[in-house]
Amino acid sequence: MTREGAPAPAAARRGRPIGRFLAHGVWATTVVGVEHVPAEGPVILAANHIGLLDGPLLYGVSPRPAHLLVKQAAFRGPVGALLRWSGQIPVDAEGGGRAALALGLEVLRRGDVLGIFPEGHRGRGDAGALRGGAVWLALTSGAPVVPVAILGTRRTGRGAGSLPRPRARLVVEMGEPVVVARAPGRSGREALDDGTRAVADALRATVARAVARTGITLPDDAAVPARAPRRANP
Q: Which distant-in-sequence residues (6+ apart) come within 8 Å of 232 by Cβ?
């Protein structure tokens, strides 16, 4: 990726074999609902976030090449080189993430797929509180938001940076797209709040459905310190 713009579409394609190998070779991942991802045009994949493997897993199982927003701290050493090579976008959370949102908007405006974890950090993954960046991108670009539930990447009692054992059962379930738009008479802030509630409801429903269908529950412990929810600064 260069500073002049978003990573090229080819970058998102070339790392996909690695992601698929992790999802289906190292771990046993079941993927449900890929038909909900439109075959063309801009799409936002908005996933819950419970473990370190969530990003590589989402990248590997997405039915279309995707650029993911990844915390800037991960862009170090060999892992950082791999992230850049595969077209991922660093997020400087302390700076409000504005630069990452601008690059993500470029990805969407050219009709590609952007992955984002709107909870903002690894936790229980219950979509209890979402930041507004994903919805701002949807409102600005017109891209639908596909809620994505990820289960099994962290179990109760394990740290947020741990990995599941090899061949562990993982699940990625994609729900029906959510289209957000600014309704007549609503301010920009009200539209953002409305959209965030709609996406949060859809993500919670997708997670609950995946848990009920598979029996894989969300972590229920204090392995990840609680953080106060913050609004995104688009």
A: 96, 97, 101, 131, 132, 133, 136
Task: Collect all residues with Cβ–Cβ distance below 8 Å to 35 and sequence separation of at least 6.
Answer: none
Q: Which residue has the tokens 């969530």?
A: 54
Alpha carbon distance 164, 153 (integer Å): 6
Amino acid symbol at 162: S
Residue type, 202: A
| Whether pLDDT at 229 is above 60 | no
Sheet holding 43-47, edge to edge: 28-32, 169-174, 145-151, 43-47, 113-116, 66-71, 89-91
- Using DSSP, state whether 70 is helix, strand or coil: strand
Any residues with CB less than 8 A from the CB of 165 and at least 6 apart, and which? none
Q: Which value, in Å, is the radius of gyration of the alpha carbons in the chain?
A: 16
pTM here? 0.91
Tens digits of residue pLDDT in 81-103: 999 999 999 998 776 689 999 99
β-pair type (169-174, 145-151): antiparallel
At which residue do the structure tokens 């960046």 appear? Answer: 133
Q: Are 136 and 193 in contact (CB under 8 A)?
A: no
Read off the pLDDT of each residue in 137-151 and give the average, rounded to a whole number.
98
Question: Cβ distance 160 to 48 under 8 Å?
Answer: no
